[in-house]
Structure formats: C-alpha cells, structure tokens
Amino acid sequence: MAGTELPLAGVRVIEMTHMVMGPTCGMILAQLGAEVIKVEPPSGDKTRSLGGMGVSFFPLFNRGKRSVVLDFAKAEDRDTMHALLASADVFVENFRDGQLEKQGLGPDELRQRYPGLIVCGHKGFLSGPYEHRPALDEVVQMMSGLAAMTGTREKPQRVGSSANDIMGGMFGAISILAALYQKRGGAKDGADIRIGLFENCLFLVAQHMVEYEMTGNKPRSMPEREHAWPIYDIFDTAGEERIFIGVVTEGHWQSFCKEFGLQEFLDDPDLRTTTDRILARSRILPRVAAEIKRWNVAELSERLDLLNICFSPINRPEDLLRDPHVLRPGGLVNNFNADGKPFRVPALPVEWNGGNIGEGLKVPVLGADTASVRTELNQQKSTDNAA
Q1: Is the pLDDT of residue 4 over 70?
Q2: pLDDT over 70 for what percent of the chain?
C-alpha cells in the first residue's frame, strides 16, 4: 500500500477500550487508514503489562494508534476529551453500562452534544435480560454451546484463541463502516451501535441451532459428529508426523484411490455412492491409514496438491513462522513494539488493489501523543474562532 491513500484516510476515531474486543475494532480501522486516538488513564491500559498468554494483547491489538493520557479527575482533561469527541467521526468504547455515564460520556449525553458522532460500544450482551452482565470470551463460548461443540458436553473445550473477542471487534468495524457510508450518503445524524460478545458467539453456532430447528436432531460435537465424507480425517505418516486429508467430491475419490493404490475400492460395487462409502468408513479408513503411513508429509503434500485434494499438516502457531505461504512477500508485516523492538505479525487478511496492509505499524508509547494532540486541538480552536 506504499504510496497510495488508504480508504479511511481523514476519518478520526477516538477509542477508550481495553483487553481485546474494543482494541481489535480500533486496530482494524487504523489499518484501513483512520486516525485512531487511544485515550488511556495515567496508569495506561492494563493490558500493557500483561504477561503469559496475554503478553501479545497490547502490541497486537493497538498497532497504528496514537496514545493520549487523560485524567478525568482534572477539569482540563475532561475538556480535552470533549474537544476530541467534537473533532471525531467515531467513538469506540467497551466499558460496562453505566461506567461512562459517570464521566458524562454515556450514549444519551453524547447524542445530545455530538449528534453526528458514531458511537460503537462493545459489551458482553446486547439489550435484554443479560445486558447488565460482564462477559469473557470463555464465558460466552460455554454459554452459547460453542465449547460443547468444540469439545463434548461432558468435557467442553474453548476455542484456542480469543476468537469471539476478535470477531466482535470485526463486527464493530463492519458496523462503523456501514454508519460512515450512511453519513456519506447525506445522513446528518450519527449512530448508536452496540456489539454483544455473547450474540457474536451465538452467530457462530447458528448453523447448529438451525440444524436442530430443521431436523429436531441434537447436533453432535465435533469429536462425535457424523462425517459427511468417507475420508475426512487425521492420519499418521511415515515420519511420525500427522496430516489431515479431506476427500469430498466424486472426482477426488476417484483420483485419490487411483493415486494411492486403492483400486479395490473403485471396483467394489458396494462403494458406488458417497453414502455407501460413509457407511463403510469402518473398513475404508484402516486401509487408507495403512497406505498413508507409508509416506512422509512432504511426499503426501506434493501428491495431494497435484490432485487438488484438500490437505494440511497438523501445525502449531510457531510452525507458521516457517511456512512458505505465510512467508511470501506481504504475508507477514514488520511492526514495532512500544520499546522499539520489531515483531512480525500476519497482515490484515485482505489484499487491497493487489497489496497487503499493515507494514511498519508502531505500538504507541503511553501518552506519546498527548502533547501533539493538545496542540492540534488548540490550533483547530484558534482557526474556528478566527473564522
């Protein structure tokens, strides 16, 4: 994207968020070209100091933003906050209901003072009986049934990333883009947007809810599910590695059996249809497993790729830092932490006019932009007064 203007250039976003969902929304908008000003308390966003699995939270989800420190106990800083909002197109927050009202920043107050402002609140739940509850990614995964579908009813298992928080931030960004488009069309008023972490997870499990609605059959969890294809499994290989193979079309079945010496399956009149093969999985899979065990992952990958059959080695996150596709030009972008140290991160998962987005983003030092933003606001005020 070097040398080209990003699509949200000229859009100003004021962000008061923490943890993952709200910061993800701001991070996406920043990568699309918006000026995102992150307002932090004097002690900073608490995720700045997280360790363990949370060590990546702040740098990952706050790249490309400006940091302004405001202490709302001071009248001057409260005035600065309102000056920022008066200059902004969007306000993003993820505080519990009632908390921002104490600072005069509740949705009703904001609508009165800034009728054109787009306000996007990331919450635990949408309006309803549970709207007062706090929520976490793991809480809503348990509550929505996603954990029971990923694991089992007896041993529910959360997804291995902050999937709902990240997806909630994406829905926030999508909604903000829709509101900006509406204003571009001539609408004078902004919008009040509420994103619910629980409802986000509910959206993920909708396919299982609708399955039950349509059939009356209780959906089976992923480990217990009925397979829709005869070969759709993880297999051991000769190199003591594993590979996933999915044979999902009639053409794939024919070419797979021919390639791997399984002609007896093609000649078997009891295996003519996909349904026949699914019912015969108990005898098909051991034979397939024995054949796959003769090959290493590299050899299998080459053959399956030529056959256009879906496959994948069983990777861990660290393995992806050596993957040739991830390492293609633009697959990983170089960003810089608040201490100046570089780190690599997957580019935003879109190509814009053939290019990747996100190269060179910096994680802001706490309060690094406070003075410059104040100066800009004062200059704007002087310009407005002169006019």
Answers
A1: no
A2: 98
Using DSSP's 3-state secondary structure scheme, residue 76 falls into helix
DSSP type of residue 323: -
Q: In what order do the strands lie in the sheet with 242-247?
A: 231-236, 242-247, 310-313
pLDDT-based confidence at residue 23 (cuts at 50, 70, 90): very high
pLDDT digits (tens, 9 = 90+) for 91-132: 999 999 999 999 999 989 999 999 999 999 999 999 999 999
Q: What is the DSSP string of 109-148?
A: HHHHH-TT-EEEEEESS-SSTTTT----HHHHHHHHSHHH
Query: Coil, strand, or helix at residue 69?
Result: strand
Segment 161-174 mean pLDDT:
96
Q: Please name the helix (run of DSSP H) or strand (run of DSSP E) that holds residue 243, with its range, or none.
A: strand 242-247
Measured from the Cβ of residue 58, the count of other Cβ atoms closer than 10 Å reads: 24
CB 262 within 8 A of CB 287: yes
Query: For strand 231-236 and strand 242-247, is the pairing parallel, antiparallel, or unpaired?
Result: antiparallel
Answer yes or no: is pLDDT of 222 > 90: no
Q: Mutual orientation of helices 370-386 and 75-87 as an angle, nearest 10°? A: 70
Question: 275 forms bridges with which residues in the sheet?
Answer: none
| Token reading at 153 | 């009813």
Picking from 192, 187, 136, 132, the residue whose alpha carbon sits closest to that of residue 163 is 136
Closest CA to 29 of 138, 247, 157, 180: 180
pLDDT value of position 382? 82
DSSP per residue over 2-51, as a string?
A: TTS--TTTT-EEEEE--TTHHHHHHHHHHHTT-EEEEEE-TT--GGGG--
- State the alpha helices, DSSP H only, in 106-249: 107-113, 137-144, 146-150, 163-184, 197-204, 206-215
Average pLDDT over the chain reads 93
> Which of 29, 61, 21, 62 is CA-nearest to residue 357?
29
* Contact residues for 233 (Cβ-Cβ < 8 A; gap 6+): 227, 244, 245, 285
C-alpha dist (Å) from residue 223 to 149, 205, 313, 334, 353: 8, 16, 19, 38, 41
